Amino acid sequence: MSQIQAFVFDLDGVITDTAKFHFIAWQKLAQRLGFDIDHEFNERLKGVGRMDSLNLILQHGGVILTDEQKDKEAAQKNDEYVELIADMSAADLLPGAREALESVRGAGLKTALASASKNAPAILARLGISDLFDTVVDANLVVNGKPDPEIFLKAAAQLGVSPNACIGVEDAVAGVQSIKNAGMYAIGIGDARVLTRADAVIDGLHQFDVNRFIVKD
Fold first, then answer.
1. What are the extents of the domains in the chain?
2. Keywords assigned by UniProt (predicted)?
């Protein structure tokens, strides 16, 4: 029986939904290169880092770029994405997100964010919830993207907590795999038929009950 000491949350699709902004920016990039991507393809980019997403898109469009061209396109995509999220506010929190975070803090547990977004700190500030996290680990601080466990292991290390005393919360298959690869208990947000490696699955943080997860076998 391990006593849970911390929760590590993903950002997109768990606390807020910026997928629509990513899609618009990626779609513009694809169109600049002479092809298009649809919402179905965009699902493949869920939880995937910026450069890995770019490589998937280029492969989809049959386009080959030099590393220098990739860097330029990725930077332009990010500039457009940053413009799109500039007007985000607390109104963009997903249902139950603030309450879930506050309940974890109220239970005396630590909280961390593990996000593939390099804009995560800015997004938390716009959502008005920066103070609800003890530490933030984003793509700027890791080498390997999900499903590699690095981001969740780094979050646990920064919290000073053993990974097996942490619970990770993710909505993407790669994210859940990352949590499990880190040796943590995994809560999936979404469809249990998709998030098959999750230890528990809920529809969203509006269904989150910290007392259900504090002590795990």
1. 2-16+90-216, 19-85
2. Magnesium, Metal-binding
What are 9-24's pLDDT values in tens digits? 999 999 999 888 989 9
217 a catalytic residue: no
Question: Residues at the annotated binding site?
Answer: 10-12, 26, 45-50, 53, 77, 115-119, 146, 170-171
DSSP 148: S
Residue 176 binned pLDDT confidence (cut-offs 50, 70, 90): very high
Check the CA dihedral 175-179-180-186 and report its sign.
negative
92: annotated active-site residue:
no
98 Cβ contact partners less than 8 Å away, ≥ 6 residues apart: 90, 129, 132
Geometric angle at alpha carbon 169, from 153 and 55, rounded to 5°? 70
Query: Rounded CA gap, 128 and 18, in Å?
Result: 15
Class of domain 2-16+90-216: alpha beta
pLDDT in tens, 182-191: 999 999 999 9
- CATH class, domain 19-85, is mainly alpha
Bind-site residues for substrate = 10-12, 26, 45-50, 53, 77, 115-119, 146
